[in-house]
From TrEMBL, chains A, B, C, D:
It comes from the Bacteria. GO terms for biological process: ectoine biosynthetic process. PANTHER family: DIAMINOBUTYRATE--2-OXOGLUTARATE AMINOTRANSFERASE, DIAMINOBUTYRATE--2-OXOGLUTARATE TRANSAMINASE. One of its GO terms (molecular function) is diaminobutyrate-pyruvate transaminase activity. This is Diaminobutyrate--2-oxoglutarate transaminase. NCBIfam families: dat, ectoine_ectB, PRK09264.1. Pathway: Amine and polyamine biosynthesis; ectoine biosynthesis; L-ectoine from L-aspartate 4-semialdehyde: step 1/3.
Length: 428, 428, 428, 428
């Protein structure tokens, strides 16, 4: 788009804060994107196995959403409406109700929060505290829930927490399934601590958890464990908040990450792929009996991004009107498991993580995982690590990636891994 | 856009959380918007004196931004790129540097935060605490800075604060200029308290303030007071954070609300009209010596909304390449003052508030202010109240409103006020 | 008592923590004490104008209390009884009721807290928060309420606060009368801030204040101001907690510091001179309707020091059965005022502080005040400074000091001040 | 002492706060006490198996301490000296150094805190936070550390915590050994959580623990576990704080509860039996390299209770000059174990808890434990329960109880238990 973009690259060093991050792994200036591919200003193309950290589950610039959005803008469709009633909001709500909530028998209300995941989480814990009159919230090891002060308190990453410059409180962090080793029953442990009136753990307003931990190393909790936590929450009068920001919208295999489980979350913060197009959009589903907000008690200028309503509606209709897309995810997930197993087989001690299209390989060290991702980028594949030590090579490809392209991406990843393993062996 | 939109209206009652708010004042379903006008699904048009709470300073669907955005989408320009380098980001940064920062001699770095004002504020106070090693932050009576836990702690509104369900700490609230009555020197008071080593007010990491309080009743601080606070911050080793989310981008009369003052804020959170098109977008300007973030220490999926980069660049070029727009604001502000004075003259005790295109009339009670706004809506004007008692009728018209339309809007407002005052007199 | 005490002095350097403090001002090893005099191990005597910071209002080793305590111990009277019923407790309670509470029409309950002032304060604020369901507590500039975490949060001294190693929260510090200069009406200011629903000051559970600030520079609040604060507390549903730990038990002129005012505190923490003999003892008086504690909800091993019950009862009977002692205090207070005025007259800008037998001279700087106290010590007078800059020479003589000795002490102080002033003039 | 004490009993109901507690279990007015016996005002005698919750380890009114205290008072020995140097303090420090610290090679400094355990704990955690610059402190399930805000945050009991009326923060509560069942390795769990950089558990300033949990059910941690915690603290740069307030001074079998373990605590809060006579007295031992307090940074009027110095010195000399007393405790502890085993044998599922002279029987329910203690009181034995459900019958007899009397007390307890068990069986 610019005639001499290389000259512009210096502007990042000159004017963008040091806090910038992904650009350090992927040293290119991206310009266009389509489906599962990104193109930089020098004309190089890349297969995208990152998908905006699961914000682009339907790929880049889906043609149907694109058309609808262009039509909306062309027709002077409203772009910003605070939380006034608008036709795009009505249509989104109606579609969401019809295709997502009603078929599952969910009677949740939709709360339009500020258009970021962290805001949707903040709204949920505020409401849980307000409703229960309790302050303590339970979250879990390796959980990631956002960066504003309330959500950051829930987040496990100690270096991110330190950014607050404040002690973060009012949260009890319990060990997630598997985080103390395979043999340790963390559910029993949580129950024992909560049942003990002298544990020092104050009665919780809520349990907040991801069912597959996106930033925390792609650990997927078992159905037994999740249902146990749900039961524990109920037993102690706490609300169950499933943070489906990264694992939802098909990423973990179905629309909600908990579709296959026998739980009914009280609140569900959603964001990332919700708009379908990568536009900022978030909401929190809340059980109607908890909907005791006074008007604007939680507000925000950009709650209800109208452009996102337009694309989100199309996304719901296109992908979730029947089971075809879900079946496609399932099929692709098998391919993914097989591909990752091939990589794991190269590396002693490596193990698969995650489920659905949210899988990765724990290669044992952040060093090796980082090297594999760097090598993959050289070979035209965008992919990142995950985990408290960045030890997991994480595949977050668009769910819509054509199978051939998906396999090609996996082959590139395998080659990159192979190359790194050989280099490592040579060095030892 | 839908054939039978009236049928859809029930979906809001059925599925949208009680927290929804503006829709209660403006009972219509909005569909299209252009310039300073909104159109509902029944074909009614409204003049917009709310502008998305100052998120639409350039009006709705500005044709140049619209064209650029459509071109970007049409060309499969990247829509979501996390914080990778992208050509739209480079162009935005270069334009912002060239038209805004460089002419003012500002060497600030641009931190792309999550695309909400509250996130930009959270980033600023995190950084102030990190840099200073101090926890206390000073904010002011009637200030509004957001709804996530850190920003909410800064916010003055006690009922909004109560929504946290937690005691909010680490903030000292001092009285804003004028909030203790015209005669009380709140600057001297702040200085006396901070100079006293036994005041109980711990050394502050930062002072956070709006120069015109958008939600707090449109109080505009004097140059003397603001410069005094800046001096006080420096004296006590605290960072000066000017929250220009609502008052900035021309609203208060110039690009930054402090352009006419002799201060150099250490950090400046910006949002609302930043994208120019009503798209979610926020950033925090930070002095380069404070830019000590580690990569991703504060992050967020939607930091750096690419569509917003596209429109924001056009907005900067179109409106801030020279002084013409600023002069236009100044002229319109005079008309606004005159119009509001006519209203104030009808109401004993009423007084003007604010400055630039961020002015209103304190009519003495929330009841009367609310009645005026409700009456204005019936007459086709969208306008809201402000202030701790909702006692100020607040005009936040698009800065681009054509003069005739602007005057027509003011006339409608005057008529509405007149009607309410007559009704009130009749009732007494 | 030891044959070679000088050898033992090294043990302090060797084994006592650096936190020790008064020993740095008074470099002697004290051994015996009687009335208003202290004797060191080398046989030197000192007049005591410090009285254990008002813990020895009846002087050292009062013969009647001494006799009763020896009798109690000799007869194997119980020394430690947790909070079981004991005859000394019954007798103390009956005496306190008969001589103190009943004559004033006070129906307060007596809560035996841990035997320190800070514990009595912690109990009071816990109860205020429990009763009101609110977290915020208001305290005042230059207030001192103790060193445990809850009480420290109330305390104004910023360097003492820093000792917490934590941000201290849940307290709003408002300016005490006079702390912003003589002309500023801090009561009106407090009222304006509390009446403003957007002040950021959450509804308070309690106001906590001293009527004469012992550590904060001997500022005595006026009756008007105190009654105004009491009214303000009632208006906002907050409990009024008068910390009478240092100013009570006759120090400010009558048994309670508020005896001459038209207020009824909801809670009154007491300690220091309560035992009469310098023994650790504290309690909190609470209005019966607030006495909603469950058994042991606040507890502590040494609550209800039995030896202290024995001496406290004697103290009450001996000094508070009629008005003679109060009259004596009044008379001595006049002598004190006169004496301090003589000192103030020597020093430009000096001014008297305090009331009753809790008076001092603000000499304008901590340097001069410290020099006067140091010089006084050389001359055999024990006296300390007060105030945020240690700028006040503070007289806290035993209320029982014989008049001749009291005047002698004041003469010594005058001589010390005169000497320091001359030195200072010579140096300039 | 009074002629008609029965008349006085009503004063408690009339004037003492509902918070009173032990008096509800032991409905008598106590008057005198000697050795292991208490006498009420009606002439009844009781064997004391409570010892002021371990504050009377040497029994009541030990004749040697009594004589020394009377001599001190008779000679007008100083009663209250703030933290000035005094001969009794010198003698206490010299004796404590000679008999306790030096023989153990401990170079700790002695910090005189306010004379309550909670204050000693508050001082320790303040210092740990100050020294490390960290806020988080780790404490353990069922731990009890006091009732002021900082210490209460460490305490496990949820109902006591609720008394704060505030969320209690800055503490992570981890499970104590055995609290998750015998099979769960809580040490490994703690290590796994602390080693995980995404556990959400911020780097700790300190670990605070009791080696035998006095209020928490007399659980005694194993040497392996304690040494593991000490190692873990060192590994993570945290200070090790052993709260020896209840378990120390011989109670758990030796002077310090950790004498038989290979650990060196950084800080040791002590109180309860420290004075030897039941007088309020507390201190915190701190490693010299941590003694970075500024003078009076933590202070308190009654720090360094002079009467307590006098008796504490005698106690140290009488009981800790050689191993005789320790051997006597060991012998008595065996008798205690045997006696409690007899009771446990009556009750299915009952099990012994604790060690040294700090043992009890977990009888499975608070109801039964309470009934046994109530029945024991009727039979002239004062004894209390412990544990989060009050399920442990806890023996805290004076360590000096003559063997015959001790056995008689145990027989009474056995009879009471037997009676209750029979009643229970009859009722089933």
């Amino acid at each position: 788009m610019t005639t001499d973009i290389s000259a512009d690259k210096s502007v990042f060093a000159r004017r963008e804060s040091q806090v910038r991050s992904y650009c350090r792994s992927f040293d290119a200036v991206f310009d266009r994107a389509l489906g599962a591919e990104l193109f930089d200003t020098e004309g190089n193309s890349y297969i995208d196995f990152l998908s905006g950290c699961s914000s682009l589950n339907y790929g880049h610039n889906d043609p149907d959403m694109k058309a609808a959005l262009i039509a909306h803008i062309t027709g002077d469709g409203i772009a910003h409406a605070l939380d006034m009633y608008s036709s795009p909001k009505a249509e989104f709500l109606e579609t969401f109700e019809r295709l997502i909530l009603a078929p599952r028998g969910m009677d949740h209300k939709v709360m339009m929060t500020g258009p970021t995941g962290t805001n949707a989480v903040e709204a949920a814990i505020k409401l849980a505290r307000k409703v229960t009159g309790r302050s303590n919230v339970i979250s879990f090891t390796n959980g990631f829930h956002g960066m504003t002060l309330g959500a950051l308190s829930l987040t496990g990453n100690v270096s991110k927490r330190a950014g607050a410059g404040l002690p973060l409180g009012d949260v009890t962090h319990l060990p997630y399934e598997g985080s103390l080793g395979e043999d340790v029953d963390t559910l029993a442990m949580a129950e024992a601590m909560l049942d003990n009136g002298s544990s020092g753990i104050d009665a919780p307003a809520a349990f907040v958890l991801e069912l597959v931990q996106g930033e925390g190393g792609l650990t997927a909790a078992s159905r037994t464990w999740v249902e146990g936590i749900a039961r524990l929450a109920k037993k102690h009068g706490a609300k169950l908040i499933v943070d489906d920001i990264q694992a939802g919208i098909g990423r973990a295999g179905s629309f909600f990450s908990f579709d296959e489980m026998d739980i009914e979350p009280d609140m569900i913060p959603m964001a990332k792929s919700l708009s379908g197009f990568g536009l900022p959009f978030a909401l929190t589903l809340i059980k109607p009996e908890l909907d005791v907000w006074t008007p604007a008690e939680h507000n925000g200028t950009f709650r209800g991004n109208t452009h996102a309503f337009v694309t989100a509606k199309i996304a719901l209709e296109k992908f979730w009107s029947d089971d075809a897309f879900k079946d496609e995810i399932t099929e692709k997930a098998t391919v993914l498991t097989d591909g990752l197993q091939r990589i794991a087989d190269m590396i002693p001690g490596a193990r698969l993580k995650g489920r659905g299209m949210m899988q990765g390989v724990d290669v044992g060290s952040g060093g090796l995982a980082g090297a594999i991702c760097a090598e993959a980028f050289v070979r035209g594949l965008i992919i990142e690590t995950s985990g408290s030590e960045d030890e997991v090579v994480k595949v977050l490809a668009p769910l819509t990636t054509p199978m051939a392209q998906f396999k090609a991406g996996l082959d590139t990843l395998t080659d990159a891994a192979s190359s790194c393993v050989e280099t490592k062996i040579a060095a030892e």
